[in-house]
Structure formats: structure tokens, C-alpha cells
Amino acid sequence: MKVILGTDSLMPPLTGIGRYTKELLSGLLSSPEIEDLRCFSLGRWHAPQEYLGAAEHSAADQVRLSTAGQVRQWLARREWAVQTYQTVAGVVERLRLHRYRQYLFHSPNFHLPSFEGRSVCTIHDLSYLRFPQFHPHARVSFLSRAVPEAVKRADLIITDSLAIKSEVECEFRIDPSRVCAIPLGVEAQFLNHIPSPSRESLRKFGLADRPFFLCVGTIEPRKNLSTLLDAWEALPASIRKTHVLAVVGTEGWHCDDVMHRLQTTAHVAYLDYVPRASLTTLLDAATALVFPSYYEGFGLPLLEAQAIGTPVIASDIPTSREIGHALVKWFPPADSSCLAVAMTEAAEDDAWRRLCAEAGRRNASNFSWERCVAQTIACYDLALMD
Hints:
The protein is α/β, with parallel strands linked by helices. It has 17 helices and 13 strands.
């Protein structure tokens, strides 16, 4: 089987879609079923090793890469820039992909380039339709054109969950047999993590001396940090004075107010992006992961927390229910009072945290990137059938 993988989401620092793409790339490279694998991004061919050679970056590289990412993000919010890119990219992509019609093209990121062969597209969620106010207008405009076009042209669609599979089928009125729900995985470093009794590794984050709640995700409206901060301010003073709220995630969009609150609210530590090894350390030490999103396509931080044995407090949304299963404290996503109660109970209930650790690890062990890749290759086989 010959495959072209779209790799435009592999720009550090990697967020959820980038992590998914990288794990797919690694798994496809090692699969004996893949005869040839090529990477295509923004109209250019890339060697797979370009992406796999540097899983994490030095501080200097991170500054340089984040600057490039900020420029790209700035352009992505300008509709004129998006439309200009689409026009030019369509011509370039068609010319560069023309010779590869015998390959299967997989786009892991919502949209398909101009391609004459068989194709698969992953649609992670429909937040641009469900919550358009949470996105830059240019992004909503782009996805409103690109996603329906991808659904129409792709031989098969992949979603990360049954909940999103159902949404895609209903929204676009397509045959359920054209949509494959393939759950994401969890990395071995989380499943095999050995808890450390020492908190010294937390000192560089200023978290060595106090217990803390952890939230992980891009700082953007869909992640619902406002409700989390409201809940934090509503906690009993006894908990706020003895705990810290630590937030990990790169700055996204429509987030000026939230960023101001993260930087000025007492006992809140905004840590920005952290490397994967540090994230493992933070999850291991956290009192609980708080996952307050209004909407998700999957929710990797929830699963990674469970894999390590960290209790989870999560908004009661379909995908989190589908993925989380185990002893999770659920709350309505807009209800800060209910979230404050859940955080208080989590801080005070040692027995619940122990039960969560055991149940979470059991649940997370059912998810693996190896299984995700194998099911994706099976999807390719279906797409290639006459």
C-alpha cells in the first residue's frame, strides 16, 4: 500500500491534532503493510524523518518555532490571507500530487487538497458549526467550505469518537458505512510511568511545596477556562490558600481576558507549553486534572491523566463520557458552582483519589496508538476497495 500523509499540523509545539498526526506517521512508517509513505504539507514534500527526528525542542528552538507558529496563527485569522492561500495552494497541490494518483492520500486535519486518487480525511469535531463564536471568523469561513468539500470527495471519513461519527453522519447526511470511528491512543510513557515520591522535579514550576490542580489545553474559548477560574475563585479559602491551580497550554485566540486572569488571579500558575516529559511529571503530582471543555472531539489530556493514575474532574459532554468511563467527577460545563464542589471534594477525599487511580489506569489501558494505527490501515484498505 502506498500512502501520502498530510503533515501540515506538525508544527511545534504539537497540540492534539499534531500529536495524532505524529503518532500516525510513526506507526505507518513501522508497518509492513505500507510499501511507501510520503509526507505532504502546505504544497511541499517532506521526508518523514524531518518530523520524527526532533520530538522535543530546546528552549531556543521553541522560541523560534513558536514565533513561526504565531505568524501562521496571525495569518490564519485573516480571511484575505486564508482565501489567497486556498487559491494558490489549490493550483500547487494539484500539480505536485498529479503524478501520485496511485497512492492513497490521508489528511488528518479536516480538509483535503486537490487529489485525483483515493482519499481518507479525519474530521476531529464540528466545533466550527456547534460553537462558531469560539473561533476566529476566518477559521469558521475556511472550515465551512473545506469540511463539506472533504466529506463529498473523501472515500472514507475518520472520526476520533462515536459521538463525532454520529454528528458527522447527521450533519452531512452520509451513509454510516463511510464513517469510521477510531479512538486515539495513549503513549507508553504515560501507561508505564512510575510515580515519584519526590517533588523536587516540580520546583522549576514553583509547585514543589503545595498540592495543585492541573488543566491542560490551548488557551481558547472552547476549553472553558473562564468557568474554571470562576470555580477556583469560589473555592473555600482553606483550599485556595493550600493549593495552586496550574494551567498548561499555548495561547490561542479570543483569550485576552482569560490570559489576564491567569496572570493576575491569586494562587494560579500559568505554565505555557511544557514538553511531554514535564507534562508526565505534572500529571503524576496533580491532585486532579480538571478538564472543563464545552466541546471536544476526543480529549487526550483526560486519557493521559487516567493512564498515570491521576483523578479527573471533567465537563459532562458526550465525548468525555465515551472516553472517560471510570470514576470521573462530572459537572455541567457552564456551572462553576458545581465544578467548585467537585474540586473541593477531590481535594478532601483521599479514598476517592485512590479509587480513581486504579479505575483510570484500567480504562486507559484499553487505548493504544498501535491499535489506532492498525484500525486506520484497515480503513485505508476499505477506501481502496473497488
